[in-house]
Amino acid sequence: MKPISAAIAITAALAGVGIGNSYAATSADPNEPVKTALLAALDDEYRAEATYQAVLDKHGEVRPFSNIILAEQRHQQMAKAELDRRGWAYGANPYSGKIKAPATLLEACQIGAQAEVENIALYDRLLPTVDDAAARELLTKLQWASRENHLPAFERCVARGGTPGRGPDGGGGGGGRHGGW
Description:
The protein is mainly alpha-helical. It has one domain: Ferritin (Up-down Bundle). It is built from 5 helices and no strands. The chain has helices spanning 2-15, 32-59, 65-85, 105-126, 133-159. The longest helix is centred in the N-terminal third of the chain and has 28 residues, at 32-59. It is elongated and about 50 Å long. The N and C termini lie far apart (33 Å). 35% of the residues are buried.
């Protein structure tokens, strides 16, 4: 999986964006770990959306990207709602239009799988720092979606050699962007 991480780093470097985030805690505020975790989660959702949008722009409406991008957008809204509830500011997606899509769908699925592995690891690092119940619940749900839904979808895509998926029944009935057809 190391070459895939290198590919992500190269793609991000070419796009002029960093892999990490800039949300390191800098104060003694007891809410800072929660704020840091929520902003890091939002940053990761932003990066995923921009990456998957680049793939869709280059390769067309292909699964699993056409489904997972919708989930990433819902995850952003959930993180924003929690930040809003607390009165904490956040910015627009800094990665939009700055990520270069891989040349092939197989490479895109490999990068997607590695991104979801890294997302799961991000939550493994963030969750122990957060003692707020609402924030922990949100972060746990986001991690679960990566582990149980997104990663397996990208792994199936890789196993198919990058051939787009057609939904859980093989016929496209997964309820994605097009209402289940």
